[in-house]
Design goal:
The complex is a heterodimer of chains A (339) and B (388). With 339 residues, chain A is of the alpha+beta class. In chain A, 56% of the residues lie in helices and 11% in strands. The two termini of chain A are 18 Å apart. In chain B, a hairpin with a 5-residue loop joins strand 6 and strand 7. Chain B starts with 6 loop residues before the first helix and ends in a 7-residue tail after the last helix. The model of chain B has no long low-confidence stretch (mean pLDDT 94). Classes of the chains: A alpha+beta (339), B alpha+beta (388).
């Protein structure tokens, strides 16, 4: 067991941390609202190889592990970055696991930066894919339809949706499709991609929750009421202590989930879903408490804490509420061969 | 980053599992439940035979030189099985204190019999008027010639009725500031002036209220300096906060999973098919994984030469609050049948949720209440100001 990052992992954390600190300030996050996409930030991120990193070398990438991506996702979350890194990485990894010509060709366009491909988290309802993450900025959406894995060209029509988290989600018309894979293998690679999205989003939520907590802690040390800093009141201090415990616990769990993808894969599905459910609640708890302890200021748009509070709920809600993830985890626990 | 405990730890865990399968019999389980005494001579002897009372100690002190990652595997398995280790662990905690702050003579006198299982040491910290504020202890120790005379009461002196000594926090200087007038002693319990009165608890576990009236203790049984008891306690409380977490919850969850998946005699589908049931079980699984990881993080910190502080408080706080929440949730999940108690032949999975519901509340108190842990996390972890 070694819970500290290796030198390479530390370098990854530091370099993306520095990049986001410069290119995803809260001023930039606000400027990118309500669309939730900062093209300049995206260009910088793509330039760092954040997509290549996610794909194995044999498929033209740099062969980063899911744990590597998890450490980037923590920074992504910490800085509320308005750029669809997780979706693009997960979609690229999915394409790299599909050995058919249309998939390989689409992956080629992703790796050259000619196409932004995302993943639908929900099945088609009627002719529409609802609330596709990054759907309003992507060129194509990967989705599962029955036992077919499809790539949907968004040129068929999409409608960006104003939303709680100012996320670039869209309802996408499933018009022009190409079939990437059919049969049981299609569902298997798709579900694996969902697991990866859950694990990485969990990590992003940990980054978000951790930063929201810091903002709250700083505030209650400075703000005085009744002649003392409000952080000296146990009613406030204990709420933050619980949030800190939840965020640290969630970070251990989310990192373990990402680690297990490569090191203990039979537990990956379970851990990814557990981590998603747990960190959804931890990020909510942390951002809610921090906002609340700002008093009336927390309710003002001018204070940054509301940026975290809204996204803590909206990011995971793109998939589902925590109980859905917990039920998914339990199903994985009970399935034969689960760890 | 590597989340596996490693091959040595895994191998040791397998040994512990087969040991428990063999030694921790249903009969022993039943005896513990019936008597409420979480100390068992037979089990104790079996642990001694394996050299597992203090396997983390160096070989020259009677240990096996096992590392903290092996030790956490042992602790996890014992806790998960519900093995009767309370007497062993308090004895070891005190032995550890003696090892670190005792005199050479005390080390020679107490460590070998403690590791052979020949003596049991109970803890005498809490008092009727001093729980979490343990430094408020009022039990008096006064000089009398070469020795000391002790008068007072100690609360929750668990296993006093089977123990040879109580490791006791006493006040030796009532005029000094609270933390500076305390001294610790090993008080032999088999002597005049010691009265042991049983206390029965919510979980069925027996503990004691102990009274000390003009109890004489030789100065050779004083541990640490006169009025230096708080320093000794600081060493002791550190040991109490690093250990396995989540084992009791894992056992309860496994019982609930068996209940949920078992075929129903009526032919109705088992509850595991319901999303709500799966979600409840999955939520507990998430919390248990976090409890385990937080405790393992403390073991890893020790393994890499650091001393867990706030991390130990977080682990303890999280795990005890989690089992409190889960046990109530599981009783809801079981419906009316949930209240059929452990020991009743109709109890669901042996009354695991009923027992958990009773047991959980103890965990939010001993070793420092949840509120004390939150204070530690807020002040030492987050740097928040102390209340004025």
């Amino acid at each position: 067991m070694d819970l500290s990052p290796t030198d390479e992992q530390r370098a990854l954390i530091d370099s993306y941390g520095a990049l986001y600190a410069k290119e995803s300030t809260t001023a930039r996050v606000r400027a990118a609202e309500p669309d939730g996409f900062d093209p300049a930030l995206w260009a910088v991120l793509v330039g760092t190889g954040v997509i290549e990193m996610s794909v194995e070398e044999a498929s033209g990438g740099w062969g980063g592990s899911l744990l590597d991506l998890a450490l980037v996702a923590e920074q992504q979350g910490r800085h509320l970055a308005p750029a669809p890194v997780i979706e693009a990485q997960v979609a690229a990894r999915l394409l790299s696991r599909v050995p058919t010509r249309p998939a390989t060709s689409l992956l080629g366009r992703v790796l050259t930066g000619d196409a932004l491909v995302t993943l639908a988290l929900h099945r088609r309802t009627g002719g529409e894919l609802p609330l596709v993450p990054a759907g309003s900025v992507a060129n194509a959406v990967l989705c599962l339809d029955g036992d077919r894995l499809l790539a949907v060209d968004v040129a068929g029509g999409r409608r960006g949706v104003a939303n709680l988290g100012c996320l670039p989600v869209a309802d996408v018309e499933a018009g022009d499709v190409s079939v990437l894979l059919e049969g049981a293998a299609a569902a298997a690679v798709y579900e694996e991609a969902i697991d990866e999205w859950l694990a990485l989003t969990a990590c992003a939520l940990c980054g978000l929750g951790s930063r929201a907590l810091e903002i709250g802690v700083d505030y209650v040390k400075e703000r005085h009421a009744f002649g003392v800093p409000i952080g000296s009141f146990q009613a406030v201090a204990h709420g933050l202590a619980d949030a800190a415990t939840a965020v640290e616990g969630g970070t251990l769990l989310a990192r373990e989930a990402a680690w297990s993808s490569g090191a203990d894969h039979r537990r990956f599905r379970q851990l990814a879903s557990l981590a998603f459910g747990f960190t959804t609640e931890a990020a909510r708890q942390s951002s809610y408490r921090s906002l609340h302890y700002h008093g009336g200021y927390g309710f003002m748009l001018e204070h940054d804490i509301q940026l975290y509070f809204r996204r803590a709920k909206a990011w995971p809600a793109q998939f589902a509420e925590p109980d859905v993830a917990f039920a998914r985890a339990e199903a994985a626990r009970l399935s034969p061969g689960a760890g | 980053m590597d989340f596996s405990l490693g091959e040595r730890s895994d191998t040791f865990r397998e040994e512990v599992r087969s040991f428990l399968d063999e030694v921790f019999t249903d009969e022993m389980r039943e005896r513990i439940h019936r008597t409420g005494v979480h100390h068992d001579r037979e089990f104790h002897r079996a642990m001694v035979a394996r050299g597992w009372l203090a396997p983390g100690w160096p070989e020259e002190l009677g240990g096996q030189g096992r590392d903290p990652l092996e030790m956490i595997a042992l602790a996890e398995e014992l806790q998960r099985a519900g093995a009767p280790t309370y007497g062993v662990s308090t004895t070891l905690m005190v032995a550890n204190i003696i090892r670190h702050v005792g005199t050479e003579q005390q080390r020679q006198r107490f460590l070998p019999p403690a590791l052979r299982g020949d003596i049991i040491i109970a803890l005498g910290f809490s008092e009727p008027e001093a729980g979490s504020d343990v430094a408020a202890a009022q039990t008096r120790a006064m000089r009398d010639g070469d020795g000391w005379v002790i008068n007072g009461q100690k609360m929750f002196t668990t296993n006093a009725q089977v123990a040879d000594y109580a490791f006791m926090l006493t006040r030796t200087n009532p005029d000094a500031p609270k933390h500076r007038g305390l001294t610790t002693f090993l008080v032999p319990l088999d002597q005049p002036g010691v009265e042991i009165r049983p206390i029965h608890t919510l979980s069925g576990e027996r503990t004691n209220l102990t009274f000390y009236t003009d109890v004489r203790v030789d100065d050779s049984l004083r541990v640490g300096d006169v009025d230096g008891g708080w320093k000794v306690m600081t060493v002791g409380l550190t040991f109490e906060r690093s250990g396995a977490q989540g084992g009791e919850s894992i056992r309860m969850l496994e019982a609930m999973e068996r209940w949920a998946a078992a075929p129903r005699p009526t032919g109705r589908p088992p509850p595991i098919g319901e999303e709500r049931v799966k979600a409840r079980l999955g939520r507990a699984a998430a919390e248990n994984e976090v409890s385990v990881l937080m405790a393992r993080r403390c073991a890893w910190l020790e393994h890499s030469g650091q001393l867990p502080g706030v991390e130990g408080s977080m682990a303890k706080l999280f795990a005890s609050e989690a089992i409190t929440r889960q046990s109530a949730e599981f009783l809801d999940m079981l419906g009316p049948d949930g209240i059929r108690s452990q020991g009743d032949p109709t109890a669901v999975e042996g009354g695991a949720a009923d027992y958990g519901f009773r047991f959980a509340l103890g965990t939010t108190t001993y070793g420092g209440t949840s509120e004390v842990q939150r204070n530690i996390i807020a002040q030492r972890g987050l740097g928040l100001p102390r209340p004025r």
